[in-house]
């Protein structure tokens, strides 16, 4: 599958949910993509092809970044590390609090996987305002990671979240 086909696949399998999680937000739901194993496999393969050989770990942002990040990590023969919401990880963690389009949030990681400065690909399903991705990249760098890029399946281009990522190499399979 080429990149244009992957983008078409993502768009064809995206539904809009009005007023979620609060009034005025137009949520982009990729559940239909995940439910179609052939489409999902093809989109994951697109990301894997682009990133092969460039990362040691894939970090997925809770929760839908786990759905995308774990199969990408397997395809890259890389490890997977979850970036979780506060209070979800046992033991010592590093945390980052940030603002997003509908409130504030805190994310955490276990610091151990980053001690030796691995090359990390950060991944999530949708890039919106960039607040979560920016906070996750900052958190991973503080933990010792070399964050080499950010991938999303869908980018909400009008929100210009990419601009908040401080020059981090960013790719979205599709944009709306």
Describe the structure.
The chain is globular and about 40 Å long. The chain has helices at 3-12, 31-35, 37-51, 64-75, 131-143, and strands at 15-18, 26-29, 57-61, 79-85, 94-100, 103-109, 119-127, 146-155, 170-175. Strands 5-6-4-3-7-8-9 form a 7-stranded mixed beta sheet, with helices on both faces. It has a two-stranded antiparallel sheet with strand order 1-2. The chain is α/β, with parallel strands linked by helices and 176 residues long.
Helix content range of the residues, please? Answer: 25-40%
What is the typical, i.e. mean, pLDDT? 95
How many DSSP H or I helices?
5
User: Main sheet, how many strands, which sense, barrel?
Assistant: 7 strands, mixed
Structural class: alpha/beta
Net shape: globular
Q: How many individual β-strands?
A: 9
Strand arrangement within the widest β-sheet reads 5-6-4-3-7-8-9
Strand coverage percent? 25-35%
Contiguous runs where pLDDT drops below 50 for at least 5 residues: none
* Element-level helix/strand string: HEEHHEHEEEEHEE
Distance between the termini: 20 Å
Rounded to an integer in angstroms, the radius of gyration calculated over CA atoms is: 15 Å
């Amino acid at each position: 599958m080429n990149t244009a086909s992957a983008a078409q696949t993502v768009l064809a399998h995206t539904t809009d949910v009005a007023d979620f999680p609060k009034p005025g937000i137009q949520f982009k739901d990729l559940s239909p993509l995940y439910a179609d194993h052939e489409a999902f496999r093809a989109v994951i393969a697109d990301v894997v092809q682009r990133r092969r050989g460039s990362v040691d770990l894939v970090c997925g942002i809770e929760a839908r970044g786990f759905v995308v990040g774990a199969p990408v990590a397997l395809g890259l023969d890389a490890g997977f590390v979850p970036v979780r919401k506060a209070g979800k990880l046992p033991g010592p963690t590093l945390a980052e609090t940030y603002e997003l389009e509908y409130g504030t949030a805190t994310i955490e990681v276990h610091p151990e996987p980053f001690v030796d400065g691995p090359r990390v690909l950060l991944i999530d399903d949708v890039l919106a305002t960039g607040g979560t991705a920016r906070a996750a990249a900052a958190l991973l760098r503080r933990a010792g990671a070399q964050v080499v890029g950010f991938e999303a399946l869908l980018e909400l281009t009008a929100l210009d979240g990419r601009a908040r990522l401080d020059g981090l190499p960013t790719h979205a399979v599709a944009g709306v």
